[in-house]
Design brief:
Layout lengths: L3 E7 L5 E8 L4 H13 L7 E4 L6 H10 L2 E4 L15 H12 L2 H4 L6 H21 L3
Parallel strand pairs: 3-4
Antiparallel strand pairs: 1-2
Helix pairs in contact: 1-2
């Protein structure tokens, strides 16, 4: 199957903590497990993760049992028609928008998922460096 899925974990400011890119035919909740395993040894103060409904189900229990974190699913209200800004969910969407401003990430140009992950890391390094330097 063609296509890729990008999973990212960000802090409350939207800065990247971990990234994983894989084939689009893998379910979100299955693709999140390797990402959370990757993050497990590097995020000592992490206690709570917010995620959208695509990550609901057995992943919530798995995250608590294996990683000792709380995975809280942010759900849309059924009564709302159309678009609704969801609490905390917009932080990840804003980060994806920041990454989308980089030409190499605007479309999937990379051959390998690892190359795509590297480009995401480079884009975030550039973004954070510019912020530290006070440049745009």
């Amino acid at each position: 199957m063609k296509g890729r899925k990008r999973h990212i974990v960000v802090d409350t400011l939207g800065l990247l903590l971990a990234v994983l890119v894989h084939a689009a035919d893998i379910q979100d909740r299955d693709g999140a497990k390797p990402l959370l395993r990757r993050l497990r040894g590097h995020a000592g103060r992490l206690r709570l993760i917010w995620a959208d409904a695509g990550y609901a189900g057995k992943l919530v229990d798995w995250t608590h049992r294996v990683c000792h974190w709380t995975l809280e699913i942010v759900r849309r209200r059924d009564l709302v028609n159309g678009f609704e800004v969801l609490p905390r969910r917009w932080v990840v969407e804003r980060t994806f928008a920041w990454l989308g401003r980089y030409r190499r990430l605007s479309k999937d140009y990379e051959q390998l998922p690892q190359s795509s992950e590297s480009m995401i890391l480079l884009a975030m390094i550039n973004l954070m460096s510019c912020r530290l330097a006070g440049t745009r």
